[in-house]
TrEMBL record:
Protein name per Swiss-Prot or TrEMBL: MSMEG_4193 family putative phosphomutase
Entry annotation: catalytic residues: H9 (tele-phosphohistidine intermediate), E84 (proton donor/acceptor)
Superkingdom, natural source: Bacteria
Binding site for substrate: R8, H9, G10, R11, S12, T13, A14, N15, R59, E84, C85, R86, Y87
Origin organism lineage: Bacteria, Bacillati, Actinomycetota, Actinomycetes, Kitasatosporales
Organism of provenance: Actinacidiphila oryziradicis
Disulfide bond recorded as keyword: no
Keyword Hydrolase assigned: yes
GO terms for cellular component: cytosol
């Protein structure tokens, strides 16, 4: 199965102001986020990406814009299911105001039970389910079009990426808050036929080592490398 490169969007104006943006319209990257997006395109330069899939929200589309400017031939698709969690009445509020809410403790310690209040608020379980379904379906689509060794990119949001990584790691959703993905960080998962392999988690460094490499003779795609392997050459 393909390898998905999950990119969290660059720092947004809402991130800088400590606001829970959710699906609020008009949330753009700030100056730092635009610099991060430009650097991302350079970090990905050595990788043969088959396609890019993005959340429909502005901050994600702006994050991949420099990449698309350097690779105008790269197919790009929009996927609502990797859009931000729907935070309901919490949307647009300062995080500092939300820490006193009873639900805050649930979100932190027992997120599988958390349901965001108000019209349109969703549960964290539902968020994870739709995001994981989207990744699995895009894996099938990318493999069918580009082959099992294809690399493709998904640009999404912090809680979405953490929930996808938790599922790939076999973690209960209640532990997903133990993961961290900074703005414009990269989390990389290779989906073999029997299990996923998490190759990077919240990485902000170089990415050239993710380029496809020849599998050692006799090693199945589902095999973990005993002893850790030799790494990228």
């Amino acid at each position: 199965m393909p390898t998905v490169i999950l990119v969290r969007h660059g720092r947004s104006t809402a991130n800088a102001d400590g606001v829970l943006a959710g699906w609020s319209p008009g949330i753009a990257l700030d100056d730092s986020g635009r610099d991060q997006a430009a650097a991302l395109a350079a970090r990905l330069a050595a990788l043969p990406l088959a396609a890019a899939v993005t959340s429909p929200l502005q901050r994600c589309r702006e994050t991949i814009r420099p990449l698309l400017d350097t690779r105008p031939e790269l197919p790009v698709h929009t996927e609502d299911r990797i859009g931000e969690c729907r935070y309901g009445d919490w949307t647009g509020r300062k995080l500092a105001e939300l820490t006193d809410q009873p639900l805050w403790a649930t979100v932190q310690r027992y997120p599988s039970a958390a349901v965001f209040p108000g019209e349109g608020g969703e549960s964290i379980r539902a968020m994870q389910s739709r995001a994981v379904d989207a990744v699995r379906e895009w894996n099938d689509r990318i493999e069918a079009e580009y082959g099992p060794d294809a690399l493709y990119l998904m640009c999404s949001h912090g809680d979405i990426i953490k929930s996808i990584a938790a599922e790939a790691l076999g973690m209960h959703l209640d532990f997903f808050q133990r993961l961290a993905v900074d703005p414009c960080s990269v989390t990389v998962i290779r989906y073999a036929s029997q299990r996923p392999f998490v190759l990077r988690l919240g990485d902000t460094g170089e990415l050239a080592g993710l380029a496809p490499r020849e599998r050692p003779a006799g090693q199945d795609e589902d095999d973990a490398v005993v002893g850790g392997g030799a790494g990228a050459r």
